[in-house]
Inverse folding.
């Protein structure tokens, strides 16, 4: 089957793209509003983009009433944000935090999460997250009236004790159990891992 995306309604394009490009990592973005309310929300149009400079990329649309997402509003105002990474233990709180709460309501309170100060940026990180990336806004690309692409420069990586080997900087497969987004309310774990036996030809 060949499907020309220009001939499909946006909802069908969305269904195809988020169903085919799986699993997607989840940026669980934490910020603080102008009035000091701690906000967090998940975004799976997300990935790291390069290590030199260390960049991540996030795609955002609008809230269902056509207004700007609170996360984007806070990123625009401050030029900073935190990407928390979601593991099995925090999966449910992440999903609940995607609800469109009012700006004066905190997802942290609604989900029982703890906001703790980040090291380098003014926004809080999620204490329960296994790891997080403290970011400074590198560039905002206004793709259309409803789509914005955020490029963030990763200034600092924070991880729970034991996850990163201090010497080798390897990540513990045992202690770090990230989940991936599939579509709707479907997710996957990263438990079934394997090595490929194939040898690459020598250059
Ligand atoms: C797993 C998951 C992934 C999501 N990915 C995105 C995304 O990539 N882009 C986006 O604009 N919204 C995404 N959403 C929806 C936002 O999380 C949702 O609109 C949230 O209410 C925004 O909160 P805010 O207004 O506090 O920023 C996702 C929701 C879930 C549950």
């Amino acid at each position: 089957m060949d499907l020309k995306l220009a001939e499909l309604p946006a909802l069908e394009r969305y269904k195809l793209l988020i169903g085919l490009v799986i699993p997607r990592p989840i940026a669980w973005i934490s910020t603080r509003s102008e009035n000091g309310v701690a906000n967090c929300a998940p975004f799976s149009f997300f990935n790291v983009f390069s290590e030199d400079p260390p960049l991540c990329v996030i795609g955002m649309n609008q809230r269902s009433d056509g207004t700007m997402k609170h996360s984007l509003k806070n990123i625009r105002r401050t030029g900073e944000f935190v990407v928390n990474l979601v593991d099995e233990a925090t999966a449910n709180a992440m999903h609940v935090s995607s609800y469109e709460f009012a700006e004066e309501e905190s997802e942290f309170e609604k989900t029982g999460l703890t906001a703790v100060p980040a090291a380098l940026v003014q926004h809080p990180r999620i204490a329960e997250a296994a790891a997080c990336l403290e970011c400074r806004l590198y560039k905002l690309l206004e793709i259309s009236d409803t789509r914005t692409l955020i490029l963030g420069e990763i200034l600092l990586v924070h991880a729970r004790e034991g996850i990163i080997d201090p010497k080798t900087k390897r990540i513990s497969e045992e202690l770090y159990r990230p989940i991936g987004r599939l579509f709707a309310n479907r997710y996957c774990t990263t438990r079934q891992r394997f090595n490929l036996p194939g040898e690459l030809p020598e250059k």
Summary: The domain at 25-189 is CATH 2.30.110.10 (Pnp Oxidase; Chain A). The radius of gyration is 18 Å. The pocket of flavin mononucleotide is lined by residues 26, 39, 41-45, 59-61, 63, 69-71, 95, 98, 100, 181 (CB under 6 Å). The first strand starts at residue 27 and ends at 32.
